[in-house]
Design goal:
heterodimer, A: 506 residues, alpha/beta, Rossmann fold, 6-stranded mixed beta sheet, B: 372 residues, ABC transporter involved in vitamin B12 uptake, BtuC, 2 domains, 16 helices, globular, binds magnesium ion
Chain lengths: 506, 372
């Protein structure tokens, strides 16, 4: 801990500029972050936040500008150089080896010598110390793929600290976390700050900015348009600075007008690949013209429920009826033909092929449709449609030929949402529709979901964002340990739902 | 970590890096040549002149190239669906039986251009049949194609032994080979192609199947990048989870891919069987199936790249043969070492130099545009 007041700068970015072809991702960025503080960065999808951090972390090289760490100019050519400058990063999308243990992941690339055994012992000790100091407890011998995302993220943080990071960058760390996990993360971040570490936090959730940061910068179209002391600003001001106009932070929707049942789930039981029951005898209906939300802490069977309805996972018993037809034995392609569209929870895993160009992803799952050609792909028709969706959903940059991996996280999500909603499905099932999406786009996506409902479609919404469930749903089902433990109207209070989600009240 | 994730522009990835790798392979081969007391520059010159110096050399080079294009395409098609078919060797071998059966049945009755389409189909069908069982085992049982296709190489080899020794052998002859096809079962030589460039084909076996190989390159490109089937194959190859989300059937794509891959390998047989020797001989594939793996890897699984890398291996084969003829100290085995060197540097060690090149590129990209 230093006795200096938190004035001395940990990071100074001077005149950072970066172009990707025609896209000017960072324009003359000047930013100073004081040592021992938490600095927030907010901005629309594609504003250039991740790019800026990637430059700081050596993933990209700035075309122009200078980086100073603790007052000294540095050149950061790659992540190795970033690490030796004391910079650690927790990426928007985790970079862990899934079938390695926590300990192995933490050590990876910092094994400490040729003989693994000595390194393992000292790494284990160091890990213990970090756990104790910062409240980052994880079982060092657990295999990554078996850990919930919240834990995986702790491993990312441990990795950075293990390498001696003094500056920690977190890119949308809470996008995948449940509220209690996020609270715990913030506790850890505060401890880190109080011990003199410097933290840069990128997020789309203004609530989090207000709750935890000391200062905040707003980026728009590659520029920093404002920097504020968090204590001196408000959510409304930040939202307006970000989008450049007033944003509705609430969803406006009229009364639901439920019609006939379009989706019905009867006594559904789904097991995961290890034979553990994930969905346990669940029954419900979704009618035309209503949005049914499924609330619950992540990992309580929502994902498996969605996958079963989408035809990706075979239920072990029970029935699913879409548009009056039982879907037993149907694959996802047949379900799409029946009028079911699916926005999957995990866009990288399922919703997109990241190596494809944008237009190729804009037909994923619908590619067999005649309008995209017979045996051959009708590239003109596909690209034309992709370009229309890009305009309608404000996907940036507006380039259907760009590799999907090169779109910002929020814009990738918009690609999926556009593809599924523009199909005009009868039944729309959605997992985490606004994960990683900026407030302007959330407003837009929410509006599209409500339009879909108002057009007389059935919408099933799964989200770990309680706010999102509450503001969109006409009815709310709460899932806990694979069962639907209760149903509430859309007006149910946060308290009530929270208790049900924890399995305490019905 | 470090530079592995830094993206590089295409001209470096597909141009500079392969060229540097190739140069390195030649450099180390040169050291080997020097170590056994020969002049490496002279050896390189002999190799290049042998492969490209005269019409006949070029004819031999392109003859080998033809075989490598087929097997390279075979491997590439499978890779696009995320499958590693290392059974091209056996599939080509069995393809030879298909081609030979067609030639033997038709050569007495029709001219070559009538036999040819049937022979293409026959070779492809037999090659595909050889891939069918491994494909089915992968699709339905999850038995890895890498293992099963290797095993099939041995099975086919024994089977062909039997067929040649007991069934197709010419009675009264010692050599385990079929009778010589009549002109109606032979693919014509491409004298005119070499003549167009003022050379003479001479005894070189370059034949019509070279053109078939080029047509297949085009068709494979269309398949992979222009058809819906290719779209499904690529989706499955890059992201099996996205494929299952999109309702792309795993078994179906695995089956179709392996059949196409086996078919392409089978067509390779047209070149030696109907083009060069005009009969079915024992072990005529001679490793071309395995070279196809290197060719596909080096050619980044793209038909255009495959043509170039097949040409490179064609040059090594032909030039190597000439070299060991002119420099007796350099034996056939030495040539294999040199080929191995190319495979090592261009295939296996592809990424060895990448970090250094990334650094150089970053320096270069920054200094002219940069502010400092
Ligand atoms: N490798 C690349 N090639 C081309 N364009 C790129 C590349 N990486 C990023 N971009 C573009 O640069 C811009 C900034 O992207 P960046 O990922 O920094 O946005 P972001 O602010 O992090 O957005 P989000 O909130 O959606 O994550 C986007 O328009 C993006 O498409
Ligand atoms: Mg980002």
């Amino acid at each position: 801990m230093s006795f200096e007041p938190a004035k001395e700068p940990a990071i100074e970015l001077v005149g950072i500029d970066k172009k990707f072809g025609a896209v000017h991702a960072n324009k003359n960025i000047n930013l100073t972050v004081a040592k021992g503080s938490i600095h927030g960065i907010i901005g629309e999808n594609g504003a250039g936040k991740s790019t800026l951090m990637s430059i700081l972390y050596g993933f990209y090289q700035a075309d122009e500008g200078e980086i100073r760490i603790s007052g000294k100019p540095v050149t950061i050519r790659d992540s190795q150089a970033a690490i030796s400058s004391g910079i650690g990063m927790v990426h928007q999308h985790f970079m862990l080896v899934e079938n390695f243990t926590v300990l192995e992941n933490v050590m990876l690339g910092a094994e400490g010598g040729q003989l693994l055994r000595r390194g393992v012992a000292s790494a284990r000790k160091e890990l213990k110390r970090l756990e104790a100091d910062y409240g980052l407890d994880v079982d060092p011998d657990a295999v990554i793929e078996e850990l919930p995302v919240g834990r995986q993220q702790r491993v990312e943080i441990l990795k950075a600290l293990y390498r001696g990071a003094e500056i920690l960058i977190l890119d949308e760390p809470t996008g995948v976390l449940t509220p209690p996990e996020a609270d715990h993360l913030f506790k850890v971040l505060r401890v880190l700050r109080d011990q003199g570490k410097t933290i840069i936090l990128i997020t789309h959730k203004l609530r989090e900015i207000m709750a935890i940061t000391d200062t905040v910068s707003v980026m728009r179209r590659g520029e920093i348009v404002a920097t504020r002391k968090t204590a001196d600003t408000t959510v409304e001001e930040l939202a307006e600075l970000m989008v450049g106009r007033r944003v509705l932070l609430r969803v406006e929707k009229g009364e639901a007008d439920p019609g006939k049942v379009l989706l019905s789930v009867k006594n559904l039981t789904v097991k995961d690949s290890r034979g553990v029951t994930m969905v346990d005898d669940v029954s419900f209906e979704v009618r035309a013209g209503e949005i049914v939300g499924i609330a619950g802490v992540a990992g309580n069977g929502q994902s498996e429920l969605l996958e079963a309805i989408a035809g990706i996972r075979k239920p072990s018993s029970g029935e699913i009826i879409v548009n009056g037809q039982s879907i037993a034995g149907s694959d996802p392609a047949m379900l799409r033909a029946l009028g079911l569209a699916h926005i999957p929870e995990d866009r990288h895993h399922m919703g997109l092929v990241l190596k494809f160009e944008e237009y190729e992803n804009s037909i994923l799952g619908y590619h067999r449709d005649r309008r995209y050609g017979g045996a051959m792909l009708d590239l003109d028709a596909i690209r034309k449609q992709a370009e229309e969706q890009i305009v309608k959903y404000d996907i940036r940059p507006p380039n259907a030929r760009l590799k999907t991996a090169n779109f910002s996280g929020g814009n990738q999500q918009k690609i999926v949402v556009a593809r599924e909603i523009e199909r005009d499905p009868d039944v729309l099932i959605i997992g985490q529709p606004t994960r990683g999406v900026d407030i302007g786009a959330i407003e837009f996506i929410h509006k599209r979901i409500i339009d879909t409902r108002d057009a007389g479609k059935a919408v099933l919404l799964v989200s770990v964002e309680l706010d999102e469930i509450r503001s969109l749903s006409d009815r709310i089902l709460v899932m806990f340990a694979g069962k639907v433990v209760g149903e509430k109207s859309g007006e149910a209070g946060e308290q009530t739902l929270g208790l049900m989600m924890a399995g305490i009240a019905a | 970590m470090s530079t592995a994730s830094v993206p590089l522009p295409g001209w470096i990835n597909y141009g500079v890096i392969p060229l540097i790798n190739l140069a390195l392979a030649f450099f180390f081969s040169g050291i080997v040549v020097w170590a056994i007391g020969e002049n490496p520059f002279e050896a390189l010159q002999l190799l290049l002149v042998g492969a490209l110096g005269r019409g006949e050399g070029i004819g031999f080079t392109l003859f080998y190239t033809t075989s490598f294009i087929f097997t390279g395409l075979s491997v590439a098609v499978a890779i696009h669906s995320g499958l590693f078919n290392i059974g091209s060797e056996g599939q080509a071998y069995l393809g030879g039986l298909g081609a030979a059966l067609v030639a033997l049945s038709l050569d007495a009755y029709v001219p070559w251009y009538v036999t040819m389409p049937f022979a293409v189909i026959g070779a492809a069908l037999f090659g595909a049949a050889c891939a069918a069982i491994p494909a089915w085992l992968q699709a339905k049982r999850g038995s890895h194609v890498v293992i099963t296709t290797i095993m099939f190489n041995f099975i086919v080899s024994s089977l062909m032994n039997y067929v040649l020794v007991h069934m197709l052998i010419v009675p009264g002859k010692m050599a385990p080979e079929s009778r010589t096809f009549l002109p109606g079962g032979q693919l014509p030589k491409l004298d005119w192609l070499i003549a167009m460039f003022g050379g003479k084909l001479g005894a070189a076996p370059l034949n019509f199947s070279f053109l078939i190989a080029l047509i297949m390159c085009f068709l494979v490109w269309v398949l992979i990048w222009r058809t819906k089937l290719g779209y499904e194959m690529r989706t499955l190859g890059i992201s099996p989870s996205a494929a299952s989300y999109a309702g792309i059937g795993y078994s179906k794509i695995v089956m179709i891919t392996m059949l196409i891959s086996g078919g392409l390998a089978g067509m390779m047989a047209l070149n030696p069987v109907m083009g060069a020797s005009a009969r079915l001989q024992i072990e005529f594939v001679g490793g071309a199936g395995f070279v196809g793996i290197a060719v596909s890897l080096m050619g980044r699984n793209h038909p255009a790249g495959i043509v170039l890398s097949a040409l490179l291996f064609g040059i090594l084969y032909q030039g190597g043969a000439e070299l060991s003829f002119d420099m007796p100290a350099i034996t056939r085995d030495m040539i294999v070492v040199i080929q191995g060197m190319v495979i090592l540097f261009a295939g296996a060690l592809e990424y060895m130099l990448r970090p250094a090149i990334v650094r150089a590129y970053q320096q270069f990209a920054r200094s002219p545009a940069g502010g400092r």
